[in-house]
Structure formats: structure tokens, C-alpha cells
Fold Hydrolase.
Amino acid sequence: MSTYIEPVDGQPRCNWCGGAAEFLPYHDNEWGFPVKDDIRLFEKLCLESFQSGLSWRTILNKRENFRMAFKGFDFHQVARFDEQDIQRLLQDAGIVRHRGKIEAVINNAQRAIELIEREGSLAGYFWRFEEAEPDTEQLQMRATSSQSEALSKALKKQGWKFVGPTTVYAFMQAMGLVNDHAPDCVTRQKVTQARKTFNKP
């Protein structure tokens, strides 16, 4: 697997993070590190749904705008959004103005509250679908997995929207449910250690 050599420190990293300057801090400090905060998990799943059909660069550059528009992705607040909020968001040039995706976030906030009432937390539920370490030849070579397909199917059954297996796998990669960093990526070992010491919910 090819890797990108960062000129600043000469260290190899996942090839994709050489695509734009803003990818590097995201790759080094966020992508793949395990997360159990429900708000962060909900936010990321929503942002991945907005990315569908677009580039992650577009979403990453608009992330702060998304956070402002969706009340920090506090699903208790988002669940109360109404048609007036939808119209406000459709006029917000700082985000992706796609009515279906906006409505999906509101719907999914309501579903998130229901899931927490049943399961205790989003984190406790999502981490049941944690991936084993992929084989080296599978790293960043697949868009879905059996676990992302299972989680996608389970969420859809509960009424979540825009949570296909590809979207869910990207969410799992980012939130540390699978370590998909390239074998010689300088961040891979950091993520491996973080996952080992992670106190699963």
C-alpha cells in the first residue's frame, strides 16, 4: 500500500491525507482514535451522511458551520427542529443544503433518543459492532465490512436514514471502531495503543 510522506517531518502517513492541507491535522489527531462521547458519535454519523456523493474535504471545511447550524449536534435539541428550522437550514450557505439530508439528521436525532432510552447510550450500542484488526491487504481497500453492513441494517430497521453500509464504515473508520491506518503510517501505532487502553462503554 502506498503512503504519503509528509514533507514537514518526513514521516509516512495514509496516502489520502496528502490530498489537502486540512487533512493532516484531522488524520493525525482524530481519524481512527476511539470515541465514546455520544454527541461526537452522532455528529460524525450525520457528517458522513452529508458527505454522501461529495468529498470529505467539502464537509470538513464546513464542519464548524454544521456545528453552529445543528446546535453542536446536541440530538436533544435537533430532535425538536421543525419546518421553520428546515427552511432556515436550506438558506444556510455555510452547510450542504440538501433537504433530504437535513430531514435525515432531524429524524436520526429522534431515533438516537429512542436508542439511548433502550440501550443506555449511543456509544454502548455502536461499540458492539467494533471491527477486529483488518488483514493488511484489506486496509483502506474496502468501502464496507460485515460489521458496517450489520450496523447499517440494524439502524435502518430502527428508522435511521442515510446510514448505508458505506456511510457507516466511514463513520467506523473515523471513530476508532476499526483501525484502518496504513501499515507503515506513523499514526497507526498511536491508534492501536489508544484502542488497547480505551475503556469501552
